[in-house]
Design goal:
about 230 residues, Penicillin binding protein transpeptidase fold
Length: about 230
């Protein structure tokens, strides 16, 4: 019995040690990234981009669609969503792979401006620390604005304004509700959901976004059905 307890204790000790090491490595990655380029400099360089899109230019329907599908508790959390992380962890363990990230919009912004897209635990930890840093320095609308100007929409478009012009040949204020919801689904996988690549998959993704909008009460089912019917789908 004593041997079993000793083995369990050693196992716990090893697990804790590995966890602390991974967290430490993630923290160092975060600190090194900030030392190389401070957050304020990163943000300034983003805001100086051609076609940078201010939050006031973005249609409400588009913002609601993005929040619904990417991070519906965006305006309530402080950078990370514990509920989403817990759900993602359970699903990842079941699949024995990174099948769900649980990342908030703030975490995704961290990844977009500082880190790579590779799915590594150390990078995820660094992303969390950076998300807290971003939330400390910027308000929610500023964070959403930066996110929408650092997401990739496919076909070489890196801002929502570029994507709107490129895919619909329109300015943002001219987008229909149908187009807003379609555009919101693209950054999840631009090579798959860009309407110029796979129109049918783009529409399928759009319907997923619309279902989330209904679930989180940004749209009624009747309104969603009407948007679909008016566009022949």
């Amino acid at each position: 019995m004593k041997v079993i307890k000793k083995v369990i204790f050693m196992g716990i000790l090893v697990a804790v040690s590995i966890t602390l090491l991974v967290i430490g490595n993630g923290y160092n990655m975060y600190k090194n990234a900030l030392e190389e380029i401070p957050l304020s400099e990163k943000v300034t360089s983003i805001r100086e981009k051609e076609n940078y899109t201010k939050i006031g230019e973005i249609p409400e329907m588009y913002k609601n669609a993005v929040i619904s599908v990417e991070d519906h508790r965006f305006y309530k959390h402080n950078g990370i969503d514990i509920i989403a992380i817990g759900r993602a962890l359970v699903n990842d363990v079941k699949a024995m792979d990174f099948v769900e990230g649980g990342s908030t919009i703030t975490q995704q912004l961290s990844k977009n401006i500082y880190f790579t897209q590779e799915k590594k635990v150390t990078r995820k930890i660094a992303e969390v620390f950076m998300a807290f840093e971003i939330e400390k320095e910027y308000n929610k609308d500023q964070i959403l604005e930066l996110y929408l100007n650092t997401s990739y929409f496919g076909d070489g478009y890196y801002t929502v304004k570029e994507a709107c012009r490129g895919y619909f040949n329109k300015e943002l204020k001219e987008m229909t509700d149908f187009e807003c919801i379609l555009l919101a689904g693209i950054p999840n996988a631009p090579s798959v959901y860009a309407p110029t690549k796979n129109p049918k998959l783009a529409i399928q993704r759009q319907k997923q976004v619309m279902n989330k909008m209904v679930e989180y009460e940004y749209l009624t089912q009747e309104e969603a059905n009407k948007i679909i019917e008016q566009n022949g789908y």
